[in-house]
Structures are given as C-alpha cells and as structure tokens.
Amino acid sequence: METIPYPHYAEDKALVKIHPSARQLAVEQMEFYAFVHFTVNTFTDREWGDGTEPEEVFNPTAFDAEQWTDALLAAGMKGLILTCKHHDGFCLWPSAWTGHSVKNSPWKNGGGDIVREVSDACRRAGLKFGVYLSPWDRNSPFYGQGKPYDDYFCAQLTELLTNYGEIFSVWFDGACGEGPNGKKQVYDWARYYALIRELQPGAAISVCGPDIRWCGNEAGDTRPSEWSVLPTGFARPDDVAEKSQQEDSAAFREKSLSATERDLGSREFLEGAVGYKWSPCETNTSIRPGWFYHASEDDRVRSAETLAEIWYRSVGGNSTFLLNIPPDRRGLFHENDVRALRELGEYLRRTFAHNLAADAAFTAPDDGYHPIGNVRENTYDAYYKPFDGENAVEIGVKLPSQASVTHVVLKEHIPMSQRIEAFTIEAKTADGWREVARGTTVGYQKIARFPAVTTDELRIRITDSRVCPVLSFIGVY
After folding, report:
1. CA distance 468 to 4
2. Has residue 17 been placed in a domain?
3. C-alpha distances in angstroms, 103 versus 73, 106, 127, 157, 346?
4. What are the tens digits of pLDDT across the range 302-332?
C-alpha cells in the first residue's frame, strides 16, 4: 500500500516514545475485573453514609468470600477491588486507628476481618486483589485538620498495604466533602502516592492517581476512539514567541482535559500540547443502578447481553472494564447478579473458544526481523513490524477452510506505544471482497464485530498510523 506522507512526522515520533509502565501494562492485561462495594450502607439501604452509623448495624449473616470469587471466575474476571473504607469511614478490617470498624461490630463477635478473608480468597482463586480507601472520612475527627488527618490516612493506608499481600491497584475517587467538624481536607496526594510506591511499588494508583484514568462516567459509556497517549498540558497563546503564532488562536487555544471529552488524543486534539503521558482508560459501572446493595433493585440487575455490550466497547475498545457487584445483607452476591455473571462468562468463553487464525497463513511486508507470523501468539514476546516509514500496510489472512466469521481481534504492541489511527477489514465472499468493519484506534485491543460472513480469506488494511504500525496479535473468531 502507498505510504502516506505526514506533515507532523517529528511530532508523531515523539508521541510513539510514550509507552506504558510495567504496572500500567499489568492492569491493561487484566482486561476485566470487579469492584465490590460493601459497608454499613448495605445495612442502612443508603448509597452514602454520613459516618454516624453505629458499628452494630454491620452484621452479614452468611458472608462467604469464596462465593464472590467463584462468581467472578465464572464471569471471566481477573481481579477484585474492595471498598475497604467508603466515605462513612467504616473500616472492613480491624484498624488500629479507629473504633469505627468491624472490630466493634457483632459480626464474628468483633473478631472478623473482611479484607483478610477477601484477599485470601482472591489468592486461592488466582485473582488479583486491590483496595479502595476513600480519602473523605465523614467519621474521623481528624478530617479537615491538615497534617493530623494525613497522618491518620497514611496510617490506614500502611495497614492495608503491609498486611494483605500483593496489591494490584489502589483506587481513589478523590471525593472531598465536609467531615464531622464541618471542615474539608486538602489531601496531600504527593505523600499518599509516595507511600504507595514505597510499600507496593507494583500497584497502580487508579483514577485519582497517575496510572489509570477514569473513563469519565459511571454508566458504562465509552469513546469510539480511545487514546492512551494524552497531553500533559497545552501552550497558551502568550507562551509563543512569534506574534503571528500568538494570533493563531485555533492552533494554540486552551483545551480541557476533562475525562468526559469525546476526543482526548487525536492529532487534532494534541495540537499545541507541551508534553505527553501514557494514560490508559478504565470503564467503571455497576451491575445494578446503585453501587451498594438495595433489595428494591433485585429485579434491575443488568442482563448478560447488556454486560456483554459494555465488555465489547471497553475491553474491545482499548479500555479495561471494572464492574461493581454489591453483596447483599447476607454478605453474598445475590442470585440474580450471579446468574448474569455466569451467563456473561459462558457467552464470552463460547465466542472466543477457537481462534480460526491460529493455523492461518499470514502475508504482509515486514522489516526482515519481525515477520507477520508473530501475530499468532497473544504475547508481547514477539511482534510484527513493517519497515520504518511504512505507515500503511495490508495484511492477508488465509484460513485453513471456509468458516463463519463474526469477530476480528487486533492488538498493538503497546510496549512500543499506540500508533494505529485507522483500519478496515475485508472478507472474500462468493460475490467478491466485501468490507465488514472499519475503525480508528486499536491500542491494547480492538475487537471488531460484524454480521456473520462465510469466508476463508480476510484483508486487514492499516490505512493510517502515526509511524509504522506494530501488532502483537491478530485473532479471528
């Protein structure tokens, strides 16, 4: 295919120097994992507690962490993030720094530790474990006092990060309201981050942190083009020396980095950027309307079909998928939630059970060192790359026999950044070649879905790329 001459080649070379850290890459490879919201709210039928709830209200009658992990495995999840302390300040572990915790609840006569049981169950199940610790504590008398509260918060962080094994994510939402003294706290984020890096260097600091980015909503909505290379800031007109450039407000306008923007990383959006960072997206939503359990929502659990749509848009659209499942007052996932998770997992396993491309014949021009056959294995140990400067390429996929095809999975070799900006997929049919899918970004993973087509030959055309594309995997299902 013809190479497209780029006027921004130097900028694009700078962009593709941005790549994920080891901790970011580890989270991206998890793809699909759970949030579990559980606290006094479960028993008061509220979404946000105010910190005045008596510890006696927390008393799950049949708590079973393995019931949770069994349900997550059935869905195909790879980890769990537990709300160890929500805004109400109630701790699911026996914290030495407050009486507002399970140690003063009737559950197990005050001798229980939810965090311990869940983290242990996760490791037995082969699931990674993460923690949520709300910085807004509506119970703590230290909240709003500055350093005394930061000392308290860091002491609780230390408990969680030293007593429960390896942590894959520390998840902050940045909530900041008034404490029991009517004051707000100015969080010492730099101190919190430094403590996490010291105690759990492999843990990603998510959402209100430098490693994993919030998608911008809690509904499961996604962007059609999701970029992982984002700007760190933009030049203002008065930062530019040349007056003629200063007057070019279109080129140097101030831009918002709001998580709700539909475009966060296209070449047009990046115009005027003063720096770049790797910032992968996480899509979070709940299986129910609320984040905590409410019996009134038992008949409002999202179906497996609805969850699959969100899974395709997120996991199949260069984002991870963090799905909340709230336990009920028994301390169990409700039967309706478990059923939806099981049906989702069965669908995904059935759909992706057999990669038709595993024994396919691939053809594409390469640089002599990274042949197209490397895309058969879903690994970063090897990858396909054409010659430098070839930013458009055609890849042929000849299947062993005719088959009904509905999905093509593309994965960029993101240790070398995100490069692809546009692609099309064509299938050879009895009536000739027919386009079945087209898209923009690929990144960690793009899953192209289309109505079933009977074929034994596909063409994947990378039609636009910042510099030469690099692919780690191609799957056909």
Report:
1. 11
2. no
3. 30, 8, 26, 18, 39
4. 999 999 999 999 999 999 999 999 999 999 9
Which residue has tokens 């090897």? Answer: 382
Distance CA 273, CA 41 (A): 43
Query: What residue type is 398 in one-letter code?
Result: K
Contacts of 462 (CB under 8 A, 6+ apart): 391, 392, 393, 394, 395, 420, 422, 423, 469
19: which 2 tokens?
Answer: 């790549």
DSSP per-residue codes, 279-316: --EEEEEESSSSSS--GGGTT-PPPHHHHHHHHHHHTT
Task: Please tell me the chain's helix, strand, coil percentages from 3-state DSSP, rounded to the nearest 5.
Answer: 25, 25, 45
In this structure, how many other beta carbons lie within 10 angstroms of the beta carbon of residue 115? 24
C-beta separation of 282 from 205 below 8 A: no
Q: How far from the centroid of its chain's Cα atoms is residue 425's Cα? A: 26
More confident residue, 440 or 272: 440
- On whether both 285 and 262 belong to a single domain, the answer is no
Q: What is the pLDDT of residues 431-470, one digit of tens each?
A: 999 999 999 999 999 999 999 999 999 999 999 999 999 9
> What backbone torsions phi and psi does residue 329 show, to the nearest 5 degrees?
-70, -15
Asked if 236 and 311 sit in the same domain, the reply is: no
Whether 118 is covered by a domain: the verdict is: yes
* E-state strands within 387-476: 393-412, 420-429, 432-439, 446-465, 471-476
CB 451 within 8 A of CB 413: no
- Is residue 439 situated within a structural domain? yes
Q: Tell me the backbone φ, ψ of residue 55, rounded to 5 degrees.
A: -60, -25
Tokens of 271: 């115009």
* Res 224 pLDDT > 60: yes
Please spell the DSSP secondary structure of 16-44, one letter per residue.
TT----HHHHHHHHH-EEEEE--STHHHH
